[in-house]
Amino acid sequence: MQFPTRTAYALAALILLAIEVLISLFVHDAFVRPYVGDVLAVMLVYTALRAATPLRLIPAITITLAIAVAIEMAQVFNLLDATGLRSNQVARIALGGVFDWMDLAAYATGAFIVFVIEATLRRRPPRQ
Fold it and tell me: How far is the C-alpha of 108 from the C-alpha of 122, rounded, in Å?
């Protein structure tokens, strides 16, 4: 049996989604919501990709970072305004509203954490 399994990734994605929702509903600060939320968002996308596809670590983390950077670049080009979605709350949550270099650092941090967790899990001897 391969560890972690797709089921484990799906469970991790659900837990991360729940944490993200709780942060968006109850945390209104200048650090946890914008930066910890971005770190967790990268981890959420990664675990969802691993749950839904047969992608391995490097391709999954590469695609995850590409998605995060694409969303941030969409902010540079004001995609919400260009598509008329600025007033759509779901689109604003998914795409964000303002470009911030620190968001890119948060995405990289999330990817690094994923990589460390995956490396740690793979070093553990299999259960007997």
Answer: 21
